Hints:
Elements lengths: L3 H5 L6 E5 L7 H24 L3 H31 L1 E5 L2 E6 L5 E6 L3 E7 L2 H6 L1 E8 L3 E9 L1 H16 L11
Antiparallel strand pairs: 1-2, 2-3, 3-4, 5-6, 6-7
Helix pairs in contact: 2-3
Amino acid sequence: MSGYVEKTLGTGEDIEYRAHFNWTYSFWPLVWLLISITPIVILAYAQFSAGLPWSQLAVAWYIFFAGLLVGVIQFLGHMIVLWTTEIVVTTFRFVYKTGLVSRNTQEVSLNKIEEITLQQSIWGRIFDYGSLTLRGTGVGVITLPNIDEPIKVRRVIENAKSNLRGVSSPSEDDED
């Protein structure tokens, strides 16, 4: 299945970079899913090792399955966000698209980006993730949460802006 960006590329426009969320973005939804599974595993072990009939623990099973359902729904909702979000730098623009049924896109021409702000905590420095905020002329603010390699994404945007202006850009192999 081709994505939104591939369908909207203009003539002579190519994808320069596709950014992704860091694994830490999914950490808490995964923890809550595991927490919702744990009571069922414990109950199953207790019931089958003790040889108790279903009827004695039926209420506990219903409660724990309700908790599991909540955990699964929350986790699937988060995964749908991950699967349907596109963060792309093309040769002419920056695109941030979210949504499965409805679609929300924020796009800005590279030459209209005035400021890129990086926010990175200590954990973000250790695990190489952070938030980027792009401010552009007439666009407002685009905030990207917990993306992988935010410094690389910033460098790709700056290099694409330089290439758009026809100015030679530093090598992408240079590290900060």
